[in-house]
Amino acid sequence: MSGARPIREVVIAGGGTAGWMAAAALASYFEDQLSITLVESESIGTVGVGEATIPQIHLFNRLLGLEENDFVRATAATFKLGIEFVDWDVPGESYFHGFGGVGQKIGKLPFHQYWLRYRAEGGKRPLDDFSGNAIAAREGRFGKVALGGTKRGQPAIRRSLPHAFHFDASLYAAFLRRFCEARGVRRIEGKILAVKQDSASGHIRELHLDGARKLAGELFIDCTGFRGLLIGEAMESRYDDWSHLLPCNRAWAVPTRRDTPPEPLTRSTAREAGWQWHIPLQHRSGNGLVFCADYWAEEDARTALLANLGGEPLAEPKLLRFTTGKRERGWVGNCVAMGLAGGFMEPLESTSIHMVQSAVSRLIDCFPRSNFSHATIAEYNAQTDFEYESIRDFLVLHYRLNRREGPFWAYLREMELPDSLQQKMALFVETGAINRFNNELFDVPSWLQVMLGQGLYPAAHHPMVNAVPEDSLARYIATNARDAAAEAEGLPLHQDYIAQHCAIADAAAPVTA
Q1: pLDDT tens digits, residue range 482-492?
Q2: 80 is catalytic
Q3: I need a labelling partner for 41 at 20 to 30 A (CA). Which of 134, 207, 313, 470 fits?
C-alpha cells in the first residue's frame, strides 16, 4: 500500500443505461471525492431494449434517494410482479415466476416440501395458489397490502407486493443523466477515436476524441456496448462465448401502441426457435423476438414477430445481433467493463440492468487506490464470474426442460449441461431440495417455480414432513392459500393504481426519448 493514494479521476466511456447508472452510483457514494466525466456520442445511440427489471433495482433507487412514484412517472413505467412463461414446456401450457416467497416455511423446511407431500397425497392446489404475486398478476392487480390492524389510533402499516418495473430505457438514461449532472458529473459529447496506454503498465492514460481532444483519467469504465472498445480492443480481455449453452444470437425489437390496460407482468412466449417478449409501459408496449439465426432465418423471425403483436407497430422492427457470454476478465489494469461491454445474458429473466447495478456495487466494494491492487482486481473478477455463471445456469434451465417440437428445442434438451446445473437439478429430482450457493441472484422460490413450471418434479419430499399429522398438514396448506389470497384481495387494478399515484401526463400520447 506504500505510496498508493486515493483515485480522483474517473472516466466513463459510453452512456446509455450502463454509463449513467455507473455515474449516478459513484456520484452518490463518493460525492465530491471523485471527478467523474462521461463521454458519449448521440450519433452512436444505444441498444435500449432492457425495459424490464427485477426487484433488486429498489436497492439502487434507494441509494439515489429516488421516490418511487416520481421514478415511475419520469420513466413511463409500470409495475412488474413477475414473468409469465407461455408454451415453454408444451404449447398450450403456461406458468408464472413470481417475485417474493411461495408459502411460509415451518422451522427448518421450506413450504414446498410440505406442498410436495400434499400433492403426492392427492392435493389439487397448484403452486400459484400460495404466491400473492401470482394471484395479483392473474387478476391484473397491484397496490399496497395491509400488514395489520391499527395500534393506538395509528393506521395499519402497508407495503407493496414484491415488485420491479417495466420502464422506457431511453427515458431512464435521460432521467439518470439529469440526476448525475445535478451532482457535478461532466458529460462530453464526442466519439472515441483511439485509446492511449502506458507502455510499461499497459494502463489506459487517455482517450483521444474527435476534434483533436484528449481526455485523461485514472480509472476507466467501459460502457461502449458489445464492441468493448476499452476492455476488449485496448486491454485485450477476450470474450467467452456461451452459445453452446444459450444459442440465441439475434433479437427483433419493435414498440407497439398499447390498446389494452397494462398488465403487472412481463410475458415470454416460446416460438419456433426462440421466444417473444411483451413488456407493457404507460405510453406503449415493448415487444421483441429473441431467436437463433442458425435455426430460424432473420426475415422469417421478423414475420413471426409482426404476426403476433398485440397492437399497431410504432416503428420498423430493429435487429440486434449478439453473442451470449462474458469477458474473460471484467477488470483489467485500470479498466472495468460494465453492461454489454462486460457480457450479455439474454433478457429471459430481465437481468441486464441488475448486472450493471451489481457491477457498480462490486466496484464500490473493491474501489482501487492508485496502485490498483492485484488482489482487489482478482476478487472483483471472481465475484463477477460467479454471478454470470449462476445466472447462466438459471437461464439454461428454462431451455433444457422443454417438450417442444423442432430441431432448436431438441438440441436444447440434449446439450451437455454445466456441472453446477446438473448437480442442482439432480438434487431437486432426488430430494426436492434446492440449495442457494454463495448468495446467488435467484433464490429458492425462483428455482422452484421454474423447475415445476417446466415439468421437473422430485421423486420424494423431505422425510421430516411425514411427521406432520394429516389434519395439521391440511390446515397448514389451507392457511397458506388463504394468506396468499389475502395479499391480492382488495388491491386496485394495476392501471387504476398508476392513474391515482404515478401516471405520466398523457399515457395515450407517444413519448419520445
Answers
A1: 999 999 998 99
A2: yes
A3: 313
Cα of first residue to Cα of last residue in the chain, in angstroms, is 46
Domain locations along the chain: 7-51+168-242+324-372
The architecture of the domain spanning 7-51+168-242+324-372 is: 3-Layer(bba) Sandwich (3.50)
pLDDT band at 144 (very low <50, low <70, confident <90, very high): confident
The string of pLDDT tens digits covering residues 25-51 is 999 999 999 999 999 998 765 555 548
DSSP symbol at 455: T
DSSP labels for 22-74?
HHHHHHHHHGGG-EEEEEE-TTT-------B--TTHHHHHHHHT--HHHHHHH
Specify the amino acid at residue 106.
I
Read off the pTM.
Answer: 0.94
CA separation for the pair 99, 96 (Å, rounded): 10
Q: Which of 80, 108, 144, 318 is catalytic?
A: 80
**How far is Cα 237 from Cα 364, in angstroms, rounded to an integer?**
21
